[in-house]
Fold this sequence. Notes:
This protein is of the alpha/beta class and 342 residues long. The protein has twelve helices and 13 strands. Helix 2 (18-29) packs parallel to helix 3 and helix 2 packs across helix 9. Uridine-diphosphate-N-acetylglucosamine binds at residues 90, 92, 130-132, 186, 205-207, 210, 222-225, 236, 238, 277, 300, 303-304, 307.
Amino acid sequence: MSQDDTTKRILVTGGAGFIGSHTAVALTEAGYTPVIVDDLRNSRPDVLAGIERILGKSVEFHAVDCSDEAAMKVVFDRPVLGAIHFAADKAVGESVTSPEKYFSNNIGATSKLTHMLRMAGVQHLVFSSSCTVYGEAVALPVGESAPIQPAASPYGFTKQACETLLGYSHAAAEGQLGIALLRYFNPIGAHPSAEIGELPIGTPANLVPFLTQSVAGLRPELTVFGSDYPTADGTCVRDYLHVCDLAEAHVAALQWLEQNNGAMEAFNLGTGTGSSVKEVISAFEAATGRPVPHRFGARRSGDVTAIYADASKAANLLGWKTKRSLEQSLGDAWRWQEKLAP
Ligand code: UD1
């Protein structure tokens, strides 16, 4: 192992997940050495093979729980420069029925992991947060200084609580731990190679995997949740960004932390453009030539009407902007779906 590999080891918890796997690829391409920790409770081992096929080399992987201090010793036996913490549960509906699981897996695990990072002298932490912290936004687009609203679900609360916890950890670390809180809008798509992508286990809760599974015939049709919202076409508006753009934002955040030792900032990560569910369906059809079987149904409880990012802070401080279009994102999501279930 070269000196460079040793100094640039980056712990990636949840690195076999959707965003984590794409970020492991982007990190490697940027000269970092990802150390993937994922106990595979919500992902599959063949994701690792997909990452390695893209990179043409093997990656360090440990199938352990990132909150298990004894098991994590294997990671910290060599220097770790930074950590990107993705490992978490993210199903809004499930969090309503199993709040204890969310408090334990999202807040408890983040607390334990952050303690380990501090004990190991890790200098940089990038945390997976969410635009859900803004709730039903007061004004659009949403900037980072927008008020944090009372959480609409236990899942949303865990993201807020982790951000608060990390604020305290940052203060306690007295400049020894820099933290970037990345508030994602709606990540979609897949790697253009179709080697890795989103692998929802069971019925997908999110729009794009449900849509692609409907087109593939695995589901009878997509139900559009609500067509009577006060938006231009009556359907909800979100800011959908390509997962490869999002992965590159993690690299940019890490580089920013390296240049701003001990800093802490929150960044919105989105395209800056809102798209309605109807627009997503049309963009998919334009990108792939495939009709989307769908019907209009009732609103889904907990959905906000419209939210999209003011991502100018990420542009100004991180030098990051999305590069891929909605059509490209949906085309890549479809190629991945076709590979999964031709
Ligand atoms: C929410 C959170 C996001 C979180 C994500 C995790 C907000 C604003 N966003 O995303 O932070 O990371 O959950 O899962 O709280 N839709 C349909 N039919 C479907 C599925 C979805 O019409 O079968 C619609 C939804 O009503 C929504 C849009 O598609 O308008 C996107 O939904 P989804 O992909 O589930 O993401 P969010 O709920 O926006």
